[in-house]
């Protein structure tokens, strides 16, 4: 695969050398513009960069209903191509301006629902909705405020078009989020009941003094029980907050994902604490019989491993979507730093 990629880059370099020699009037006849916009649609950033380096006028090139490179990048949700706007220098404002055949400006394009293939690789309808809002907010931050008041042929402002085109995704995102919150609330409530009961069922003397108070395993049990109980309580309260949320568009940007992070994280700690408390109790009861203790501890780790396998990837995705580096990079000048035409 590395060898194939190497050959492809060499071929691309040869093609870009030929493109640089083609007059602007001959570009459409040679089909270069079609290849260029196909590369944008599929997010093949290497081809886009090489063609732009060969002929910077491609930044303002038009093809079919797309106004320019950045308009196509927004419509097809190709963030790597979109990031080129920050490295385009004097071409930046020329690329942003303009309307398509339906009088949609670039903010209208950001308000449209992303192509299905771009949403498919995002886990969960709530994260898909978050990604769409991030796109809209990012484009909104680089355009003139007057763009937000423009009307297309259907008489819709960008914000109105966003709401109308994302109605179904909003419903799916709300249903998806409530499903996770409801299921997790049930699990958390069960853990609270179990751990609260377990804390007061330890063996005691007639005086009420715990028999195993001086054993290390008993101290581990009490600590793990308390951690599990408090974590489960926090998780349930957090997910109750998710269930009672108003589910507005803005909530999917940060508020709901943050609540999901807190809820899932504390639920994980509560499950882990419950298993530790269970193992500590068995150690006390079996009085150090390793033949029974070791297999039991290994079995107790299965629920924790299952939770990590099923929910941890989702937790990581949510965390990255909020606190990660983000999909928009405003420091891509290095792509054209050796080309004076982009100064």
TrEMBL record:
Domain PGG: 175-284
Keywords: Membrane, Transmembrane, Transmembrane helix
Keyword Magnesium set for record: no
Residue intervals passing through the bilayer: 180-200, 220-248, 260-286, 292-323
Keyword Transmembrane helix: yes
GO CC terms of this entry: membrane
Protein name, UniProt field: PGG domain-containing protein
